[in-house]
Each structure stands twice: as C-alpha cells, then as structure tokens.
C-alpha cells in the first residue's frame, strides 16, 4: 500500500502550502505528486521549493504559469500590454530570490508523466498531457473529451490540475479521472459555494484493493498570507489579497491592473528588468 498526496496550483501561496503539508504529514503520506503552477501571483519564492524538497516529492509536472515564467526569462513576453507588464513584474519579483538551480528545475520538469503504483497505471499532467493551458478539462468537459484523453494516453487513472476545481469523472470504459483542486487559489463557479477558501488537495491510496481518493480541504490563515505578501512587498498585492480573500482570480482584470501599473510605475521597473535579461 502507498499513500500519495496529490497537490497543485499553489500559485505562490506559502501559508496554504504549509498547512497542506502539515495535514498530509498527519495522514502519514509517503509520496507527493505536484501538478504544476508552483509560483505566481503570490509572494512565495524559494521557500516553496524548500518546502517541497523537505518532503518526498517523487513526481512533478509543469504548469502554464511555470511556462509563463520561462517565457518571460526567454524574452518572449513583451511589455506593450497591461497583462504583459503584470506578468513581467511578477517574474522580476520572483527572480529576486530564485536561484539558477530552481529555474533549471522548472525548465527540466516534464509536462506529462506516466507512472505505476501497485499495478495501477497513472497519467499526470497540469491540464491535457500535451497542453498545460486552456479549458478542455473544465468541470463540465464533454464525455467525448474525457474518452479521447484515455484513448490517446491509455491508463487506469488520469490526474490533472489547472482548473482549481475538484473533479471526479469516469471514461465511458470506467477509467478514473480526477482533479484535487488548488492549494493556493481554490475556486467554485457557483457563488454560494465560493466562500469555502480552504486549501485543497487529495490523498491517493493505492493498495491490493485498488484506488481510494480522499479529497481534502485544509483551513489556513488567510490574514497571515496577506500579511506576509505585504511585508515582502509583493507587486500587485491588492489584487492578490482580493484573490485569496474572495476566491476570484483577478489576473485578467485589465482596468485594475492598469491602474496599479500607473500608480506604482511598474512599466519603468519592467523596462529595466528586460534590459538586464538581454545583457
């Protein structure tokens, strides 16, 4: 028998990750599978890598925000659009702490992993195995999409993240598909359910009987997370505070982002950052 903590979409939320890892330890978890999107837009940087290095993180896959960070560092993201400035400024902030080794580890993290435990085959990806962005596997995904996933990548259990919404579905043949939700930014489309902001992950138990999934929700100190973000001078901290306090993602709120950029002269910051990347 093996007990595995499956978690992802941490998004820089150090306080939520600490709470999840403490809960997993209490449940005698042996392995940790990480589904991507470790950094951004929260304040967590090297401490997130350190926390995951302290546990038995046996599998990691790369998320779309991980790719966004790499694209900025590769010089592939401009600064003409407010969302581009937003992303550049957050990556600039992250790079104040990240080591070259941590960036290399992100680059070397695969987008898709196949593995076996106790005779059960698993597929792990952030979204689709070949595409770590988009909404193909949203909670109301068509049965045709789910069946196509298993036809293209045959396995007994497929695991993904990205949507920030816990999901349990089956293929037409009975294979299992699940999403553990988000550690750092849980989200519910239905407004009356959106007040539950506990950090989400799942414990996967694989034994001689098969597979069991325990969807977990862990209370963490949101006010402490906001306090840490402000103390560490996180750019766009008001947007981040709104996100962790309401569960609503603000990364595409262009009007708010534009106002913050102008008030804090972030365009000047990212111009200097881009120049350093080119040298």
From TrEMBL:
A GO MF term: metal ion binding
Enzyme Commission number(s): 3.1.4.-
One GO term describing the cellular component: cytoplasm
Keyword Metal-binding: yes
Keywords in alphabetical order: Metal-binding
The protein's enzyme class: hydrolase
Domain Calcineurin-like phosphoesterase, first and last residues per copy: 3-208
Origin superkingdom: Bacteria
Cofactor(s) listed in the protein's UniProt record: a divalent metal cation
Pfam families: Metallophos_2
Keyword Cytoplasm: no
Protein family (similarity comment): Belongs to the metallophosphoesterase superfamily. YfcE family.
Xref: PANTHER family: BLL5683 PROTEIN, METALLOPHOSPHOESTERASE
Protein name as catalogued: Phosphoesterase
